[in-house]
Amino acid sequence: MTFSFSGEIIEWRGPAPFYFVGVPEDIADAIGALAPTLTYGWGAIPATIRVGASEATTSLFPKNGGYFVPLKAAVRTPQHLMAGDVVTITVELGR
């Protein structure tokens, strides 16, 4: 299953900064319905994401009934993406 959407990059500051884009509610609901067949533990769902010309494997993180897509440096750095930027993401689940 593949979804595309746009969202703002947010930064979570922990011991190391992490960057995410929230999945819109309607898409998160569809992913949630598929989650039992896709998750490999604690609700994380493996996925391949594409942002512009960059592609990476990752896992969607469940949070408060929705999901967040982590944006690795391999995706952000070549395109000079930062917190606050709005990006369009294509998410292919289960890869």
Could you please describe the fold and organization of this structure?
The protein is built from two helices and six strands. It has 95 residues and is of the alpha+beta class. The protein has a single domain (2-93), classed as Elongation Factor Tu (Ef-tu), domain 3. A six-stranded antiparallel barrel has the order 1-2-5-4-3-6. The mean pLDDT is 92.
Helical run tally: 2
Q: Report the C-alpha radius of gyration, rounded.
A: 12 Å
Topology order in helix (H) and strand (E) letters: EEHEEEHE
Low-confidence stretches: none
Secondary structure category: alpha+beta
Say what the CATH topology is. Elongation Factor Tu (Ef-tu), domain 3
Quaternary organization: single chain
Proportion in helices: 10-25%
Number of domains: 1
Q: How is the biggest beta sheet arranged? A: 6 strands, antiparallel, barrel
Q: What would you give as the CATH superfamily?
A: AF2212/PG0164-like
Neighbour order of strands in the largest sheet: 1-2-5-4-3-6
Short description:
It is built from two helices and six strands, in the order ββαβββαβ.
What secondary-structure arrangement, pairings included, does this model have?
Blueprint (H helix, E strand, L loop, with lengths): L1 E12 L3 E6 L2 H14 L6 E7 L2 E10 L2 E5 L2 H4 L9 E8 L2
Antiparallel strand pairs: 1-2, 1-6, 2-5, 3-4, 3-6, 4-5
Descriptive labels:
95 residues; alpha+beta; Elongation Factor Tu (Ef-tu), domain 3; 6 strands; 19% helix
